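Batch manifest line 173
LIGAND: 4'-phosphopantetheine
JOB: complex structure
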Amino acid sequence: MIKRAVVPGTFDPITCGHLDVIERAAGIFDELVVGVAASEHKNGVGTLFTLEERIGLVRAATAHLPHVQVDGVSGLLVDFVRAHGAAAVVKGLRALTDFEHEFQMAALNWRMDADFETLFIMAAPEYMFLSSSAVKEVARLGGRLDGLVPPQVLEPLGNRFATDGTEVLSFTG
Ligand code: PNS
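JOB STATUS: finished
ARTIFACT:
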């Protein structure tokens, strides 16, 4: 029986930390579906990249991985997991600060559908500090992004901000 897992996230944009978790999960499961959540108003703030752009960047960054597909999550994660016949959700865990939020989401998903497990992979020490919010801040302030985001994300992210840090609206990636 094929063991399939879902790695969900907003991926605005995908970072090297996300990619590390995806690569390690791909080594454990037979098939992986990366679920890119619409998350249009995460924490009351709109995403920098549209859902289609975020899916495109995750596809480009994971193109080297066989048995990994990428799909958008527009509704509930539990419905997405069920629709893809996955046995587990895999998430990366950085520090203690992630735990409370992840614990709450896992418990809520468990309450809605107890048929799959949520598994956590510890972030690699070199990526403990990384988050999509942090890389957007670095990009906005004109800092170096190599090593923080996959190579395919460097240009689209850099192009998103003008030299004065204001957001450029067109997607040039
Ligand atoms: O890495 P992120 O961006 O914090 O991931 C959050 C994500 C996408 C896993 C979460 O927002 C999610 O599952 N969204 C889908 C909608 C849903 O099911 N919400 C209820 C459970 S929190």
